[in-house]
Amino acid sequence: MRVVAAMSGGVDSAVAAGRMLDAGHEVVGVHLALSQSAATLRESARGCCTIEDAGDARRVADVLGIPFYVWDMAARFKHDVMEDFVAEYSAGRTPNPCLRCNEKIKFSALLDKAVALGFDAVATGHYAQVVERADGGRELHRAVDSAKDQSYVLGVLDADQLARAFFPLGDTTKPDIRAEAKERGFYVASKPDSHDICFIANGDTKGWLTSRLGEQPGEIVDAASGEVVGSHQGAYAYTVGQRRGLGLDRSHMDGDPRYVVGVDAASNRVMIGTSDLLGVNAIRGDHARWCGPPPEGVVEVGAQVRAHGEEVPAQAWASGDDVEVRLSGRIRGVAPGQSVVLYDGTRVVGSASIAKSWLER
């Protein structure tokens, strides 16, 4: 097969490209330029897509002896990921940009361009596994390394995208991947992993949002009493479950911690309360994406609402683009805009964007 190996400049995508070549595929390395003003050097483990990263990817391609190209997708990334990120926070929702990037960039824009150029598939360094069924269909499963499993952020892939996706690292642990990279002579073998939001290199999400949305002063309100207990400079900077950075005067409160329990974008209010107001056991999701046929009727699943969160037994049923999920127990800090990803054992069933969550007694 002719395969585009998406090469970020990190160790995982480097080994993924090498493994695809070892498997006998015709491999071309592609680095995605996602920033319209890329930094020259990486300053920390945060961020990505610097000129230094592109150079690291090119050096790996040279070691492997494969062609290498840089594809400019900065405008598409800005529209589909960064502007979406701002719009979601502005609406009082908490998005996961990694899911959006996988859905809109790596397995849409990149895959579409690759297919248009005559390639058969895209390979990435994600930690997940693709299992082929006897009937030729493909399933997405969790990685062997549970600490690095990235199946959650791939839950947005549909059956057609999954049919053209390879994840060569899913059967290996991260320490073994680094050891393999060293054996292959890759300069990036000990390069730190990227983490957090790639386009906010300093990790200051609040500051980044404020620079784009401006200060929007509003009230912090006690959800139980309706009393105004504080003020903020922008409700968009808060998310359900948040405890730190509330800036409350605790002198008139009891000793229980306070958390964000709701963000009302329309009134620019942040609602706070005690932990008992955070627990939910019912979720309604929209924008459903299925990694195969949609479930029929009520099905038993595992539900996960964060990239490294705990999977909770649940029942789910689909209705058009919507999904209803009933959890076996309460979970805390479920925010609109997050994604709920559904599992059947290790298999990813699909995902949806959380529109509402509540406690059903």
From TrEMBL:
It is found in: Cytoplasm. It catalyses: S-sulfanyl-L-cysteinyl-[protein] + uridine(34) in tRNA + AH2 + ATP = 2-thiouridine(34) in tRNA + L-cysteinyl-[protein] + A + AMP + diphosphate + H(+). One of its GO terms (biological process) is methylation. One of its GO terms (cellular component) is cytoplasm. It holds the Pfam family tRNA_Me_trans_M. ATP binds at residues 6-13, 32, 125. It is an enzyme of class 2 (transferase). One of its GO terms (molecular function) is tRNA binding. Catalyzes the 2-thiolation of uridine at the wobble position (U34) of tRNA, leading to the formation of s(2)U34. Residues 208-273 form the tRNA-specific 2-thiouridylase MnmA-like central domain. This is tRNA-specific 2-thiouridylase MnmA. The keyword Disulfide bond applies. Its main location: cytoplasm. It comes from the Bacteria. The active site is at 101 (nucleophile), 198 (cysteine persulfide intermediate). The record marks 126, 338 as: Interaction with tRNA. It comes from Pedococcus dokdonensis. Keywords: ATP-binding, Cytoplasm, Disulfide bond, Methyltransferase, Nucleotide-binding, RNA-binding, Transferase, tRNA processing, tRNA-binding. Disulfide bonds join 101-198. SUPFAM superfamilies: Adenine nucleotide alpha hydrolases-like (SSF52402). The keyword Nucleus does not apply. Its EC number is 2.8.1.13. Residues 282-354 form the tRNA-specific 2-thiouridylase MnmA-like C-terminal domain. Belongs to the MnmA/TRMU family. Residues 148-150 are annotated as: Interaction with tRNA.
